[in-house]
Design brief:
By secondary structure, the chain is α/β, with parallel strands linked by helices. Helix content is about 30%, strand content about 20%. The protein has a domain at about 5-110. The protein contains six helices and six strands. It has a six-stranded mixed sheet with strand order 5-2-4-3-1-6.
Length: about 160
């Protein structure tokens, strides 16, 4: 079976996403298919990396949003569609020989509660990384294999 680096991403119930997260998922606030659990909203994103042509957000409950490239949408018979039944998407993926990786569960803190966390005091033994840490981080990443680095998807800006 073909196994592109597709992601199934779960999300906790009733979360309110930040503008950055909402924008990533095509302007939806974690809900797809008009909030129906059996529907998937389709968002075409040709900026997706070739090794990760598909990403699926399952807003539990409330439907799903899939971000995928135009070429993969064509391959799955979804070109021009804006929504599809979840079972139809699963069938199209199976027919194309595409298996999704196991779920990655992403938990979003509701916007209203984010300021509470920001206002917490930082323990004295914890500090934010700065440009002064670049050399140490470079040494750290040099010890990882190319496969580990490719799968790590570490973002240093948050």
């Amino acid at each position: 079976m073909d196994r592109p680096e597709a992601h199934w991403q779960g999300m906790a119930e009733n979360r309110v996403l930040s503008e950055r997260a909402t924008g990533h998922w095509g302007g939806v606030d974690g809900r797809g298919g008009d909030g129906r659990d059996d529907m998937v909203r389709i968002v075409i994103d040709d900026s997706r990396p070739p090794a990760r042509p598909l990403e699926l957000l399952d807003a539990v409950p409330g439907g799903c949003v899939v971000r995928l490239t135009t070429s993969l949408a064509d391959r799955l018979g979804l070109a021009g569609e804006t929504e599809v039944l979840l079972d139809s998407l699963r069938s199209a993926l199976a027919a194309a020989g595409i298996a999704l990786q196991d779920n990655d569960h992403l938990f979003f803190l509701p916007i209203a509660e984010q300021s509470v966390v920001r206002d917490e005091s930082t323990p004295s033994n914890v500090r934010q990384l700065t440009a002064d840490d670049a050399e140490a981080f470079t040494r750290f990443t040099e010890t990882a294999s190319p496969a580990e680095l490719g799968e790590a998807y570490v973002e240093l800006d948050h």
